[in-house]
Amino acid sequence: MSDTKVIRQHLIDPEFCIRCNTCEESCPQGAILHDAKNYVVKADVCDSCGECISNCPTGAVDSWRFVGDNQRYSVEEQFAWTALPAETRRAEDSGAGDAPAATGMPEVSIYSSRAPAIGKVVRNVRVTAPGVTSNIHHIVIDFGRYRYPAVEGQSVGVLPPGTDAGGKPHTMRAYSIASSRDGEDGVSNTIALTVKRVMEDGPNGPRPGICSNYLCDLEVDAEVKVVGPLGASLLMPEDPDARIVMMCTGTGIAPMRAFVERRKRVGVGSKTMSLFYGGRTPGELPYLGELRALPASFIEVNVAFSRVHGQPKAYIQDLLLRRSEDVASALADEACHFYMCGRKGMERGVLDAFRDICVERGVDWELTFDRLHSSARLHIETY
Asked: Is 270 a known active-site residue?
């Protein structure tokens, strides 16, 4: 092990950045800046809070490299990049406290828009009930001769065909991977996606989501171009005894399903996983049946519905408050990780519930929140 302290430096991938400025606008520390070419991160200002990550439409801002503490990439170096530098250090060299006991640094950005991987669709099925407005598909892609080493918590970048109104190729869209590193159903070099068909009301009438409809319409054996893998902030703990509390809505279940699939394969202790899952009706929640069929000794599944006729509205924060004793124990457990994925509106409700649970027990919520961040135990990806 090197005597030099190793840190995980936050960077922005210039190959996938579309210069939308959401990262710079959302950074509370003012650590992100840009020039005519690149968006970059000031290492001495960024505190890895993660506020910028959920707003990035391509995953470019969710990029990291292990570097020596005195060898951080300067903004001047970053401004000159056309691609991220190769990883030169291992996660194991980081030392205690620099990163959680997780998967380590996975491989990222192996494929770019200029040299994408080509996958083939082997399954495309709707996983929400017929008749409900939420039309969500489970899509499995086999990469064949292309090596695509994604791990749980990462995303894939899909390149939809065609051009926009200005004649430019459509930009990449990022989707969370819903399968484990072993592949969907244990078939190596495959991934599963959870995709909602989007129909938006634009100023000139209904406007379909370009990439979501493209993916949902793909037939078996169709080819799809992808980049990535993307992201390194939503990784699960490698320790099979670490507790995991998962909170999600709709397609936010994708990375949570990947976590569940991984732990089904490696084996875990009793009740180390808890899921708080919310939606309008049972028929609109993908994978609900398969999750409920799992033994309660393996995972605790808590569900809330906001649009079931004859029942009061319930949301994820209501579930957390009902299980306040267990949540308080998890917040105090240094080996417990919290994952939140789904609609942006859930974030405030969940954090408020955490605060109320702490206050009720005389625990300093602000201090607890800071500890969750500093120990990388709170992982949020909302949109």
From this structure: no
Q: Which of 48, 176, 180, 212 is catalytic?
A: 176
Asked about 339 being catalytic, the answer comes back as no
| CB-based contact 275:298 (threshold 8 Å) | no
381 given a catalytic annotation: yes
Tokens of 269: 């202790």
In the chain (383 residues long), the average pLDDT of successive 10-residue segments reads: 66 83 88 92 85 73 81 92 74 39 67 92 94 91 94 94 89 92 93 90 65 95 94 81 92 95 77 89 92 91 91 93 95 93 88 96 93 87 82
Per the residue annotation, which of 39, 148, 175, 277 is the catalytic one? 175
* Catalytic residue selected from 211, 248, 341, 358: 341
Has 111 been annotated as catalytic?
A: no
